[in-house]
Design goal:
By secondary structure, this protein is α/β, with parallel strands linked by helices. It has a single domain, classed as P-loop containing nucleotide triphosphate hydrolases (Rossmann fold, 3-Layer(aba) Sandwich), CATH 3.40.50. The chain is about 35% helix and about 25% strand. The strands form two sheets. Strands 5-6-7-3-8-9 form a six-stranded mixed beta sheet, with helices on both faces. The chain has a three-stranded antiparallel beta sheet with strand order 2-1-4, covered by helices on one side. A hairpin with a 5-residue loop joins strand 1 and strand 2 (about 20-30). Helix 3 packs across helix 4. The longest helix has 23 residues, at about 235-255. The protein is globular.
Length: about 270
Amino acid sequence: MRIRVDNVSKRFGDARGRHVDALAGVTFTVEADELVAVVGPSGCGKSTLLNLLAGLLRPDAGTIDFDGPLRRGRPATAMVFQEFALFPWRTVRANVELGLEELGIAGREREERTRRYLDMTGLAGFESKYPHQLSGGMRQRVGIARALAVEPAVLLLDEPFSALDAQTRTLMMDELLGIWERTRQTILYVTHNIQEAVFMADRVIVLSRRPGEVLDTVPIELPRPRRESQQGDPVFVQTADRIWGLIKSQAQAALLDHDGGREGEG
């Protein structure tokens, strides 16, 4: 599934009648089977962009199109959140099944899909556990399995590993890349972490401070499959430096903006 975002803008209003422009004229594409990351300073509208793609918000201007066949019973998008967003009273299996229930998928198909994605995300053997019995990394695996189980055309990830410690984060990035290699799922991945974006993505879209505009789209010229050792590669370092060079002044300006991020977008 190919994503086309064409000249998209979004504005929010507050209780005092003031307007905050979150995004302004954002244009980019994500090709089918591509893993694209979005980075930018705090408050640049990255989360707003994901919510627009997910259909949770509507743009005030511009269009968002999904090009490609969509099988019956397969949603256009599913999202993995920074917060684990699991129901504490449901087991791992029941949390993964939630989206399938909402789609009306029952019986053997639901059982097979649930088992397949539990296995894929390393959750086999944990089916009967509850969220409070799991580590942060395991909880996020449940969120990823739940999103994958509905077999969306596009997977949206909103800083999925930012709440994890550094070691768990590295392991989860490796595992997500392994899943992507097997499924070739179209992914749009939002993160504050430049090194994470370079390690994960085929291309990195760099947004300006609010209102978010596309400063540049940076191709990642690293071979796949990715390995942790590549983070010392001169190409990796130069690419990360290039992206930081694009957003450094933007990030400094955002820090001085007393209203930075108050529309609630990362």
